[in-house]
Amino acid sequence: MRYIELLSPAKDFDAARAAIDHGADAIYMGGARFGARQAAGNSIEDIARVAEYAHQWGARLHATLNTVLYDEELADAERLARELIAAGADALIVQDMAFREMNLPIELHASTQVGNTTAEGVKFLEECGFARVILERSLSLDEIRQIRQATTTELECFVHGAICVGHSGRCFLSRTTSARSGNRGECSQPCRLPYDLKDEQGNTIIAGKHLLSVRDMDLSDELELLMDAGITSFKIEGRLKDVRYIKNVVSHYRRCIDDILARRKDIVRPSIGRSTIEFTPNPEKSFTRGASTYMLHGKSAGVASFDTPKAIGESLGRVISVKRHSFSLEGKATLAAGDGICILSPKGMCGTNINRVEGNEILPNKMEGIVLGAKLYRNYDHRFNALLDGSRTRRQIDARAELTLSPIGCTLTFTDEQGLTATIEHNIALAPSTNAAKMATTAQRQIEKSGDTIFSIKDVKVTGAENFAPASLLSQMRRRALDELLAKRKAAPRHHKIMPDTGLARYPYPMVTRYENVTNSMAEQFYRRHGVEQIEPALESLPTKGERVMISSYCLRREIGECLRKSHKLKGDLFIEHGSARYNLEFDCRRCLMMLIDHSQKKQ
Fold first, then answer.
1. Nearest to 107, CA basis, from 86, 123, 128, 93
2. What is the pTM of this model?
3. CA spacing 20 to 30 A to 410: which of 56, 266, 443, 467?
């Protein structure tokens, strides 16, 4: 029996509450500093509120401290880590090995920014006391299986949302064009910009396309394969996403996972409670650049989004007729006033809103790009979003009640689905009831009222109904018992794996390179303890000119049909350019990787 966790992002308390209400087993969110999404920071007070809310259902809070640190920040980082622990965080997600040196009394997770791509690397982290390792997004199923066979630590993988085209933690692209660094939580996302592809003579091969922008991940049809490959936690990307996105996507994955759990006895969810939603989740109706399984089934073309880095939404089909102020679509696609559409035509991509719909005639705000044969996508569904906004989802825990009435008093016990109990006794003389059957019915109705609590009373057993208890007394006892049961739920232990670092593990590679970003003395101490003799200065702190600033499993040559392993026409070096930014593309065909070397004109 093992746990399968659904892990949701949360940028703030409202997003966290929505994630828990809609079925997340855990949420991850940032504190005030040192998180890889600087714009998604939260106060300690907010972290404490989220932890208390999540713990009612046995759900967990993972706090993100996954930026690299400098020596002058170590004291503040440790202080914040300990404050997060005191606030109720259940795990810390970290990139910098300085946190491993701080002897923190909490479960540590190795962030994907650590560069978790190999079995030997993950095994090393496990032996260093990391309870969980978050895998690089570009790994295949076979690579995940190899890691699982070599390790016992929990494995977490992304299953939905935006994909970093570069290997996480090994991308310095943002620093080549600005002072903002992805490893410091400030990525400017230059990978989403339009680029020209040029040969070494300067000839333009492709102009003005988003050559590094890849589609979003959707592995909702691959979850059982991932479970069997050894994944423990399914992670949704999006710590900057709004509550609508959280409601829809979390609900979708909750349904997918529950369908699998319902027919398998070897896996269970780590939290409890049923989420009753009032809409049919559909991830195509939330922010998406188009769905992709990325590299899960091997490296192949078709993962890029050359035309736009923005959300395109759900496909509606093609335009079959065009008039001066309106158009019609093929099939049964339905649009409504207020919807937003994205149009893909031979001249490019553009968008508009729908003003009104009259039968088959659709009248947009503007007709730009709407021509015969153009493909349409809906990137804003007005009716669906109104449904999300109006939904009042509740997550409830089933409980049963036993009420015993006697001449000398009442005893009420609630037992929830996890086996936690709360008992209230009230010593009071009870008169005989004139109608035992009526008393039993009245008692049952009073006790099963759970109101706005997190409990749903599914079964009430009443004994001693020949004794009369007033409804007001039963109501008072019910409230007290449910309050006590809730308090026990909040205080109940959750599964934790706080593991020591004995120092016996040996670093599996010859040296710690500049790409591992050792930027402080504590991280250096960590690697020295584990047998490392040579540590290169961190590229994070160095000029990037002439350096490899991205390593990627995505290959532009493969994407445009010019793979070097196959028949190809493009010879010599290739470059991509945007303004003063210029990168030489290098290809490691043995490992099937693409690298970007910084040749930009930015002063450093």
1. 93
2. 0.95
3. 56
